[in-house]
Amino acid sequence: MPLARFKRFFRTLSFARVVCLGFFAAIFLGSFALYIAEAGELSYVDSLYLSASSICVTGLSPIPLSGLSPSTHWIMLFLIQLGGLGIISFTVIVGFLITKGISRNARFNAFVGAAIDNQSETESLETSEVNRILLSVINISFSIEILGAIGLYLHMPEGVEGENTRWFYSLFTAVSSFNNAGFSITDDLSALRLDPFSLYIVSGLVIFGGIGFPVIILLEKVLLTVFVRIVYRIEVLAETLMMEKALKTGNVPRFLLLPAQFSAILENRIEEYNKHLRGETTRIQSKLLVYGSFALLLFGFVGIYFLERSNPHTFHNMDVVDKISNAFFMSVCSRTAGFSTMDLGHLNDATVIIITVLMFIGGGPQGTAGGIKITTFVLLLAYLKNVIQPAKPVMLFGETVSKNSVAVAIRVYFLATVALAFVFILLGILDQNQHSLHVIFFELISSFSTVGFSLNLTSQLGDIEKLFYAAVMYVGRVGIFTVLIAATGHSGVPKMGTVDDGVKIQVG
Fold first, then answer.
1. Which of 32, 272, 441, 479 has a CA-to-CA distance to 125 between 20 and 30 Å?
2. Could you mention a single GO BP entry for this protein (predicted)?
């Protein structure tokens, strides 16, 4: 009876509250698991902080991970994967475990449709389509992580894994990279600093994880289309050979039938994508994220390279190839991952500012990245341009953007800046002038954007400060707008006028 009541209560919750409660519960369960695994060697506050950092894929740790037990590393790996699957997947997993049927809820199907593809209000996804999208997200995650782990295992230098087994170090690093967690069981990736290929593998995993699952799914669809064209040509050649064999011998080798069968499988897969991912948002938002990511990576790479190339504490003693790979790696990780190959406390002040900007912007929505998101940032820029010419609507790639999307972008930015300013004041009071304000601010932005970079402040935090930073990670991962909706029970953004038929861009 109590279970039935709990299920009914769970079904009545808004999905903003389901997401918030799901992450909240996972953090607490993870904290107890970590505390038990360390058998009292780790304080509960540190366990809670580490659990929040793992679930929120942040990467900040109050203690060296190399000193933790293997069982703790496994628990962290599970928490990183669970938190990094994304808000949509995580919500569904929690729902299935508790209610065993949340995806049959029509409101939830519409929610997934809006989050993944932003279809029109008259459309909603069927349960099979929701399951198909979620299955794609999970399949893509595991496939990319496994490929990344294999690449690291085969290529990384001998001995970089320390006391860990080589395969587990490769797997942990790959999972942490794709989920943009920034954790390393050897505390950092300094052992890979002079191995450009391994750095590029990690960078690729970070980029794919941070760009957002809808874009990855679309890229998979594009690749499948290319494969279909290649297979079609092979199929034509195979049919010609079959005819020749049939005329000469009367028998047709079975292997000549494989291209046709493979082509049919690929075409069915593409047809499914066309059903599940339709609408202009898939195309517009994907272009926005790809171009935006490229621009931010280039900005970060150029800035970091030229600012640090003569710094004796960072890049000065490296050759040009290693300088390029490390500058690119730091630019990639600045937006959400937080891996480091050197002590960030030795960076130039201007470099710290660039990294702070990149952290605040973050990656793509519905991925493993943090920050206010690229889409939010670009919409704000487009809106500012629109202020100069107020008679024109906000445009992206020649398409009118939904007024609601612009409104949400403005609100996300406003909420984020106000909340960060308030918490910054509190942290400054708690710090009692022990550290520079820019060090505290850097740590705050890193926590909110779930990046994991630190100017060596994390290990010096008091228990109350750790709780504040853990709360900031939580809000940054779930989304400040989601937290506000969950707290107030409001549906979000009201209609902006009678007609709002522009392209809806996912923000926040």
1. 479
2. metal ion transport
Round to whole Å and give the CA distance between 451 and 57. 8
Phi, psi of 111, rounded to the nearest 5 degrees: -65, -45
Amino acid at 477: R
Angstrom distances, CA of residue 423 to CA of 220, 432, 448: 41, 14, 11
State whether 65 and 169 are in the same domain: yes
Q: At 324, is the pLDDT very low, low, confident or very high (cuts 50, 70, 90)?
A: very high
Q: Are residues 257 and 294 in the same domain?
A: no
What is the number of domains present in the chain?
Answer: 3
Residue 282 has pLDDT above 80, yes or no: no
> pTM value?
0.82
Q: Averaged over 52-77, what is the pLDDT?
A: 92
Residue 342 to residue 273: CA distance in whole angstroms: 43
Contact 280, 291 (CB under 8 A): no
502 assigned to some structural domain: no
Question: Do residues 113 and 123 make contact, with C-beta atoms less than 8 angstroms apart?
Answer: yes
In a domain, residue 496? The reply is no
Q: Are residues 304 and 176 in the same domain?
A: no
Q: Which residues pair with 503 in a beta bridge?
A: 401
Segments forming the whole domain that contains residue 161: 1-193
Tokens, residue 59: 């990467």
**Res. 499 pLDDT band, cuts 50 70 90:** low
Same domain, 38 and 130: yes
- Overall size of the chain counted in residues: 508
> Are 150 and 253 contained in the same domain?
no
3-state secondary structure of 503: strand
In a domain, 204, yes or no: no
Q: Is the pLDDT of residue 264 over 90?
A: no
Cα 312 to the center of its chain, rounded Å: 33
Alpha-carbon span 84 to 54, nearest angstrom = 9
DSSP 506: P
- Looking at the fold, whether 267 and 316 belong to one and the same domain comes out as no
Q: How many other CB atoms are there within 10 angstroms of residue 380's CB atom?
A: 18
Question: pLDDT tens digits for 338-377?
Answer: 899 988 989 999 999 999 999 999 887 767 778 888 888 8
Per-residue confidence at 120, pLDDT binned at 50, 70, 90? very low
Q: Give the model confidence (pLDDT) of 138-190 as tens digits.
A: 778 888 899 999 999 998 988 888 888 999 999 999 999 998 898 999 988 98
